[in-house]
Design brief:
Blueprint (H helix, E strand, L loop, with lengths): L3 E5 L2 E4 H19 L4 H18 L3 H21 L11 H24 L6 H18 L5 H18 L3 H26 L1
Antiparallel strand pairs: 1-2
Subcellular location: Cell membrane
Keywords: Cell membrane, Membrane, Transmembrane, Transmembrane helix, Transport
InterPro entries: NMN_transpt_PnuC (IPR006419)
Length: about 190
């Protein structure tokens, strides 16, 4: 059961979706700064979005939130008190990650279709891409932000087409935040 907080563009924004969006935005924004405090915010937003996505039958997106919660623990421990020290991947590792994402999406999409998920290819990409992007964040690789950029474009499109306007707008904002994160982390790794 969801309680409507307000209606925007004929879309009823629930209290849960609103709080999840605000909390997630704070976590992602803090991530661009490389500050360790990003991780508790990321975990809190993920808990809220796990419930929301499950309620609207976006099962891969709901499962992704569990991965984010676990990753927040490792990110907190890995970054340490001083925060992230961005590095870069080798060209070979970039290629491996790209191939792994493509293969995993191809395997997961039919599974999602078989269980009656509201979206298949896009939700599979959001799940798999985010898994790899999250790992890159934990390991402080600036390429994470390029992957987040692509994920956020796909996510904003998916949620818009499914009619989840508020979350779609959040993903549009996340797209711009990913560009900021990419620039900040690129600058930090160059220093």
């Amino acid at each position: 059961m969801s309680i409507t907080l307000f209606t925007a563009w004929e879309y009823e924004v629930s209290v849960l979706e609103f709080i999840a969006a605000v909390t997630s935005f704070i976590g992602v924004w803090l991530g661009t700064t490389g500050k360790r405090i990003t991780w508790p915010w990321w975990a809190a937003g993920s808990i809220l979005y796990a419930v929301f996505f499950y309620q609207v039958e976006l099962f891969a997106s709901a499962a992704l939130q569990i991965i984010f919660i676990v990753a927040a623990f490792f990110g907190w421990r890995g970054w340490g008190p001083t925060g992230a020290k961005p590095g870069t991947l080798s060209t070979r590792n970039r290629s491996y990650i790209a191939l792994a994402v493509i293969a995993s999406v191809a395997i997961l999409s039919p599974v999602l279709s078989g269980i009656g998920a509201a979206a298949t290819w896009s939700d599979a990409f959001i799940l798999i891409g985010s898994l790899f992007a999250q790992l890159l964040m934990i390991y402080e690789k600036f390429e994470a932000w390029f992957l987040w950029l692509i994920i956020n474009i796909v996510g904003s499109t998916q949620y818009l087409l499914l009619g989840y306007w508020f979350t779609a707008m959040l993903y549009v904002v996340f797209t711009f935040v990913a560009v900021i994160g990419w620039r900040r982390w690129n600058r930090a790794r160059s220093n």
